Amino acid sequence: MIxxxxxxxxxxxxIVLMNPFDARSFAWDMAADVQYPQEAxxxxxxxxxxxxxxxxxxxxxxxxxxRGVIEVFLNKEPGRWTFRHILLACEDQEVLRNILKSHAPxxxxxxxxxxxxxxxxxxxxxxxxxxxxxxxxxxxxxxQKEGRSISIKRWLEGxxxxxxxxxxxxxxxxxxxxxxxxxxLSQLINSQTPAESExxxxxLFLDEIREAGKLNTLHSLLLRARSxxxxxxxxxxxxxxxxxxxxxxxxxELLGCPxxxxxLHLNPTAHAARKWASEAIDQDEMRDLSKGQSLQSxxxxxxxxxxxxxxxxxxxxxxxxxxxAGSDKGMEGVYVVEDHLHKKDLDGHYPEKKVLLTHEELFxxxxxxxxxxxxxELNYIPRKVLDxxxxxxxxxGEDTRSLPSIAPxxxxxDRNRRTREATAAPEGNPLMNIRH
Length: 436
Known about the structure:
single chain, alpha/beta, two-stranded parallel ribbon
């Protein structure tokens, strides 16, 4: 993707990479975008999703505790906390207690920690859900120290291109973060005033959207995007995949929102997709000529009848007959642009009253794609392994200075831990007392 953007002439300084595995990646400044209690609930719900298990109590309780921790940070250190701080706060039982009891609305959660065996199960559930995000929080911490961080609010005001993270080694974790990022982005776009949205147009490209999982705010964004000066481009392979993620009715409603369509080559086995594509173009009234012969007393007579009937403008088989997209022949297909139907290089069922444009006329200089940068190594520069390890709370460093209201929870726990270790340690070297 980076080489493609550079091939388009986009300056490298305008590209914001969100893949934590890349050494050039940016940190998401969550604190700038998550500021209200209801947003703490959304964040907790995504990090610890509801599951269909036999004992939902532990999952629900772990989620409540996480939500409580986030609420404390929102209240005491608004705009200054990071994802790393949230994870560190949830790792130690004593730190958790100190944080929750420091804020009146979250003190009730302390009761969930009283029974030891119950708390062990709750903490195990909390750890199993949050531990998987440690590398993301660590990478963001490293990027932030290097001076690279961005919030969605700042991005909407600027002219940068954000490329969300994608890596098969951590697909599920990155998908969750990407969904959280997209949901927050959709909410901020939909909440813009007319004066704010008129300043700049926002483009969102969601390629292979099925792979992102269900985006809860996509439908509302598609319905309101145009009024917010936002253009959303969806790309997917098969209607079946969309229905698997969103359900049949919701998927078809989603795909009915875009004003413009590009329907390209579809594989012969994609029967449902080709049928959907044919139906998406709809039908038109076409003339059907039929000839017949009849035997009469004077011999055979011929007759011609003209009928008008509704027929598909493009049949399902037509989408298989399109050539595959390529730099040598462009993208052969059917395009619905501004309520006009266009086609390229296909003879067949097509009414004369429709406006015809060639592929070149539709896309101009970009009709046959863009040449990427020759150096494909620019697409990915690996981050150092040490950057992916979550660093502990800096009791005498930046953490304590930047979060003075939260720091006591960590400092007290650290002091008590040191006291316990000193009390439990035997005097001198125990190995010296061994008799040989």
